[in-house]
Amino acid sequence: MSIDDKELEDFMPAVELNWTDEAVERMKNVPFFVRKSVVRGIENYAKDKGLTEVDDEVVSRARQEREGAAIAASRAEKAQQQAETTANKEVKRQYVNFSFYKLDPSFRRLPTEEKEAAKREFIDFLEEYDTQSKMILLSYSMVGIRSDCDIMLWRISYELEEFQKMTTQLLKTRLGAYLNTTISYLSMTKRSMYQDMFNPEHEEDRTHIIPGKAKYLFIYPFVKSREWYLLTQFTRQGIMDEHIYVGNKFPSVKLNTTYSFGIDDQEFVVAFETDYPADFVDLVMELRETEGSRYVVEDTPIFTCIAMSLEDTINSLG
Fold this sequence. Notes:
Elements: H1 5-10, E1 18-19, H2 21-27, H3 32-48, E2 53-54, H4 56-88, E3 95-103, H5 112-132, E4 136-141, E5 151-157, H6 161-171, E6 179-188, H7 202-205, E7 216-224, H8 226-230, H9 233-248, E8 254-259, E9 268-274, H10 277-288, E10 296-298, E11 303-308, H11 310-315
């Protein structure tokens, strides 16, 4: 005996619970060849909830839970695939250090020949380290700009111990004996957790810093409030969209954001490179007016640094 389309449409498998007419009617929208498994799934859902009757609402809730589980499973699978992809092309993160030094004024009162010899020794040490080590080393002067520091060394390395090794040797030089480390910020590169819809490639920039392309560098530590981290990721992304939009209005200013969570007192260290200080002033003023600024706890001190060669940086000490 053949089965016509009407019989297939009305087919309802055997059930263990009471079904309302509305619930049975909804099953007619389910293809007959999977209807049995769908009915079984709905009844299992109802039993898990301690229900004895399946009505229209139970069908809806069971479907939502099933779809939610499917979505969660799909997302988990994608996350696993992304993790495997990332593992296959792992990006090695960098350690970043900004060390600020203040010269003891007594050095300037030394005989000229002694001063010049000490500076020459120090310059040779830095240049040798710059050429022979795997560390990226850049030097900046703040002489005449700040009273609490004279020079700054921006160091980038894949090994944290390199900073310590270099500093130990630096302090053994004659000039090193007259240098006081007033501030030292330690951080690491890391992918941003916020998407930059205006410049998607910027996310890749966060994992690998290539600095030193501009004359001026502006550095400061950055800390956000606990309230910021209690906001949902969706809300924070929306706030950051405005922040990122403002930043992209100033293409002459390059931002290097590094992360200090757990390895130093601040949460971030931000370093802005530009050839136009006025653009940086305007950028900071606009950022003050964004929603995100209300969650800033600390963004000082701010250091204005002028890029120089290693030799010119040391000679700027006088």
